[in-house]
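Protocol step 4 of 6: record predicted structures for both targets in the notebook before any analysis. Target 1:
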Amino acid sequence: DRGLDLLISLLQALNGFVLVVTSEGVIFYSSHTIQDYLGFHQVDVMHQSVFELIHTEDQPEFRRNLHWALDPPRTPEGEPSPAAGKSPDSSAVICKPDQLPPENSSFLERSFVCRFRCLLDNSSGFLALNLQGRLKFLHGMNRRSEDGSVLPPQLALFAISTPLQPPSILQIRTKNMIFRTKHKLDFTPLACDAKGKMVLGYTEAELRMCGTGYQFVHAADTLYCAENHVRMMKTGESGLTVFRLLTKNNRWKWVQANARLVYKNGKPEYIVVTQRPLVDEEGGEHLRKRSMHLPFTFATGEALLYQSAHPLPGFPDLFQSKGKPSKSKKPSCSHAGCSQKNGIEPRSLLGAVMRQDKA
């Protein structure tokens, strides 16, 4: 236990995260601190292709460093690259131990820079990382060849990934407050991690009993969030979204979030949102930039807010409205389970906004 505690402390103190990638480009291991730098949870990236996280222009460099001779096999013209295939293992080049240099050879040391997708970046969406480590034999894979014989251990990249540009004091302070929430497809809250409970002040039970979740979003940010919600339902990811959330002590908290769909058996099952608290000055700057953009179109956010019957492909039926909102100023209900009153669907954006405290 002491050894584990020491390892966790070292990872927290490290300005980066540990990454182990097989020769086929599959992430065998990532330390949990990857979430502090890229916004992805450790479980989400393990056993996935690393090339899905790397900028297209940097993928050849990363693939080159996975090969012991810095000379990966070339893909014939007209065929998809190994990263694009469904089975990365099929593109593996199996090497016998006697074909490889000694494990302590300086030829196996690696130090290079690649841009990784970053859910926390508010400019390019990528973070330049310096990967420093070496190729080492990865034991315990127990892989077999086509004839059933056990394959020898293969080299994998063991590296420490650190940001090319040192983080600012503000980034160091805020990175430890990144939190994640889980939602139904209509954004109804299902779960919130411990950091989220600290930032927002709610328990999971309090989050679940309040409806779709849009009643926690500032009325001035609702259409903006709805448009990114629609984008996520169509593409699988919302992109960076900066908005205000209502805390339990009735204060607005600016957050920078990225929502994405999680699929099961090829169908979207739920939404996972990674959120980082912002200071008011950062939020205000985003609001000024947003105000310079064109107004929302009727086919996206406004269609949801005003309960239009305009079809939105990919959205569940409960998002489609069956009537027009009433002009009544009274809130439609105080609980998500209430029936429709005044012709306003409680689960709609308008119904959620009307349930917010006027103050």
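Target 2:
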Amino acid sequence: LQRSMSYKVLEGNVGYLRIDSIPDQEVLSQLGGFLVTHVWRQLMGSSALVLDLRHCTGGHVSSIPYLVSYLHPGGTVLHVDTIYNRPSNTTTELWTLPQVLGERYSADKDMVVLTSGHTRGVAEDIVYILKQMGRAIVVGERTKGSALELQKLRIGHSDFFLTLPVSRSLGPLGGGSQTWEGSGVLPCVGTPAEQALEKALGILTLRRALPQIIQRLEEALKNYYTLVSRVPALLHLLANMDFSAIVSEEDLVAKLNADLQAVSEDPRLLVRAIMPRENSPKPEPGANEQLGTLPAVPEDEAARQALVKSEFQVSVLPGNVGY
């Protein structure tokens, strides 16, 4: 287990689980109690989970339902994939388990999966399933686009061998559409693999701050927005808004502005993210810090006229139209 997985709880109470090799279902069943007690239970109290599959290059199809089930809510079963095996000409459906040993990770908690160009095979299928379920934000690089199962065949009686895929994923419900094989899984947030964990923690920090951001926005609308009759609709919108796809401050600002302006019909209602500026110049002592303020009115009449001319242009147009 130490060679194939590791775990810890990071700053901000973020659980971190790294899996480099996925054992088959038989091994997982034998070690289930040990894994729940010594690994999974340590992560259950975390406020969010990072599943690191950047170095996961091998695994067994039989383990897919086992792993996905711990991240799927109880009470229902979900058809996650259909696998076709060419040598046996058989098709196998994969469903989440109705019961698991220990607890499932709460669906109300955020989850991020880290990927790299080395992530392949069964690990790719797990990433693809979690992404399609809407259960995880995928951060990192496009995965390898490998195959679920490879087989090495001797070519005749020669010393040459051919390695080729013998099983393929048909996708949920056996639709036969293109999945991740050959093309890989495209991340939700693309970033070099070595920076993926840092990027994921930044996303989780933003999502952890969302309730407080929305609360302050609601207070500002209730206390200051001049179109009072539209406030209840705006508050209802904020209370029911889906932020599952928010992975950056830019995403949050764009969504808030689009939805708030659509409900209020007010293009002046704007949300902005103000980034702190380091080493910004400080105003000189006595300088007027209020933007847009006119300069002081001079005492001299000529200077007053020059000031007025610099601020106003006055003329009478043809047709005796004042301008």
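Step 5 preliminary note on target 2. The CA atoms of residues 31 and 191 lie 34 Å apart. Helices lie at 25-43, 64-69, 122-133, 196-224, 231-240, 249-264, 301-311.
Proceed to step 6 after PI sign-off.
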